[in-house]
């Protein structure tokens, strides 16, 4: 029995679903990637017995493990400063094992959960849980192996929400922009209406009335009426145009205070 097959079967015995990847790469060999991961010994033997050079991957998230991936991108940065912050906060105390990755980074193993895979690119850290996968020893990438460094003794979970809040504190909300004075807005619109030439006076009044009502559905439109009268519109036409603007606004739904969940 080859080494990769032994490791694959050992993972399956502890309930971790596994699948094969291309030799020296992280590319899945199965059609549906991690979704095809299995704990079935016959399937695992079929995958790995004939080709001991295939890389071995584990589907993360329960029943598999959760894995904190500390990246090392050379001059572009690495996740070790973020790792130190998480360790100092006591969030890594339950890690079960540590594996050195081919790039010089680390994988920390935790008990698997239903948390979702997530990323912190600015901190150079990934959290591999439900919806993810990870290569394990004796896999290698670019000729460099994954190396199990030590068992850490923990048997708990990583609270990723707490970790993410620590690594990326909530942005401070900007104070809301000062709202324009409705009186000033009406005055500005009225000056514009009064300046409209013949042929655009009615359309101009309707447009200005809608802008005023967008800000306040109960807005006093009498300054616009006076401006339209100054521009040359008859009172009957002014009344009809303003009433039309009010009806249009009344049939426009109020914008919601909050976007519905999932809205983009």
Report on this model:
The chain contains 8 helices and 11 strands. By secondary structure, it is an alpha+beta fold. It has 2 domains: about 5-165, Prim-pol fold (2-Layer Sandwich); about 180-245, no CATH class. It has a 6-stranded antiparallel sheet, with helices on one face. Strands 1-2-8 form a 3-stranded antiparallel sheet. Strand 9 (about 140) and strand 10 (about 145) form a beta hairpin. Helix 5 (about 180-195) packs antiparallel against helix 6 (about 200-215), helix 6 runs antiparallel to helix 7 and helix 6 packs parallel to helix 8 (about 235-250). The longest helix is centred in the last third of the chain and has 16 residues, at about 235-250. The relative contact order is 0.11.
Please specify the SSE layout and strand pairing:
Blueprint (H helix, E strand, L loop, with lengths): L2 H11 L4 E4 L19 H8 L6 E5 L6 E5 L9 H9 L8 E4 L5 E5 L7 E3 L4 E4 L4 E4 L3 E2 L2 E2 L1 E5 L8 H8 L14 H13 L6 H15 L6 H10 L3 H16 L14
Helix pairs in contact: 1-2, 5-6, 5-7, 6-7, 6-8
Question: Key terms for this structure?
Answer:
264 residues; alpha+beta; Prim-pol fold; DNA_primase/pol_bifunc_N; DNA primase/polymerase bifunctional N-terminal domain-containing protein
């Amino acid at each position: 029995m080859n080494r990769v097959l032994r490791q694959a079967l050992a993972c399956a015995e502890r309930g971790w679903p596994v699948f094969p990847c291309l030799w020296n790469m992280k590319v899945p060999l199965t059609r549906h990637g991690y979704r095809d991961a299995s704990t079935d010994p016959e399937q695992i033997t079929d995958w790995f017995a004939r080709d001991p050079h295939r890389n071995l991957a584990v589907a993360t998230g329960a029943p598999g493990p959760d894995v904190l991936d500390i990246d090392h991108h050379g001059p572009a940065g690495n996740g070790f400063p973020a790792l130190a912050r998480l360790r100092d906060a006591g969030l890594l105390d339950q890690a079960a094992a540590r594996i050195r990755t081919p790039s010089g980074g680390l994988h920390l193993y935790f008990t698997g959960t239903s948390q979702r895979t997530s990323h912190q690119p600015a901190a150079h850290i990934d959290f591999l849980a439900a919806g993810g996968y990870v290569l394990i020893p004796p896999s290698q990438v670019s000729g460099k192996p994954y190396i199990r460094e030590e068992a850490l003794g923990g048997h708990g979970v990583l609270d990723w929400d707490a970790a993410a809040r620590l690594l990326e504190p909530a942005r401070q909300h900007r104070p809301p922009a000062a709202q324009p004075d409705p009186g000033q807005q009406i005055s500005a619109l009225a000056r514009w209406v009064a300046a409209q030439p013949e042929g655009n006076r009615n359309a101009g009044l309707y447009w200005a009335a809608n802008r005023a009502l967008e800000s306040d559905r109960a807005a006093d439109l009498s300054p616009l009426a006076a401006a339209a009268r100054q521009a040359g519109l008859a009172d009957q036409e002014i009344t009809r145009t303003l009433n039309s603007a009010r009806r249009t606004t009344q049939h426009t739904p109020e914008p919601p205070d909050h976007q519905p969940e999932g809205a983009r």
